[in-house]
Specification:
This protein is α/β, with parallel strands linked by helices and 244 residues long. Helices cover 39% and strands 17% of the residues. The chain is built from eleven helices and seven strands. The protein has a seven-stranded mixed beta sheet, with helices on both faces. The two termini are 22 Å apart. The mean pLDDT is 96.
Length: 244
Amino acid sequence: DIYRPKDSWETLPAIVCIHGGGWNKGRKIHFQNVAQSLAAKGYVTASIDYRLSGEAPFPVHVHDCKAAVRFLRANAKEYGIDPDKIGAIGSSAGGHLAALLATSAGVKELEGNGGNANVSSAIQASVPMCGQTDFLSERNREISRDRDIWTEFLGGSQEEQPGTYRLASPLVHLDKTDPPCWIITGQLDDPSTHADKFRRRLDELGIETGMTLIKDAPHGFLKKQVWFDEAMETADKFFTKTLK
C-alpha cells in the first residue's frame, strides 16, 4: 500500500514500512498509521506484506522485503520516488527485518527471487524499532529453546539451527557499505532491543547510528499516541538527515 503527501507530485525519498507480529502474524494494514504519518512528513511510503512463518520458513520474510525495495526502485519514476534514497522502518519482527535489510544487500541467500533481479535491494537508511539484531546472543540462545515463534521462524532453537540464526542476524552481515541505522525502543522493553553490539559495530565502521529510548514505554509502544508521535518525529528527523 503506497502513500505520498497530499498534493505533492515532486520526486521524493521512499520508506518501506514493515509490520511486526513475531514473524508469524500481522498484515500491512497494521502498519498503515506509520506509513501515513511518515508520508505526511514528506516521503513516499510503502506498507508491505511478507510471507509469515506459518506459510514458509526464514528467509522468505526478508526475501519479500527485498522484493518490495527492488519493486519500488524499478518503478521509481511511476511512483515519484528517488531510487537512490530508499529507507526502511519496522517494529518488533519488522524492526529485525528493517535491520536485516540494511546490512544484507547482495547476500545471495537473502535476496530471493521476487522479481527485478537486476535491481539493487540496498537501502540508504534504516530505523529498527524494538527489534532483535543479534540472533547469536546468549539471551536468544536461551529463549529460542522453548519459544514457539523462534522455532517456527528459524526452524528450531539456536543450538539446533546455528547456521540459520547466523544468517538471520543483522549484526553478522554488517560492513562498511551499510547505511546509517537509528534504533528506537521502549525504556521498559528487553535490553536486547537496545542493539548495543550492533550500534558499537556501526560506530567502529564509521556509520552513523544512535538510539532513542522512549521513556516508560513497553515493547508495543506504538499503541499509545504520545509514544507513537515521539517515534515518528524521531524517525522523521533521522530520515530527513539521511534521505532528504
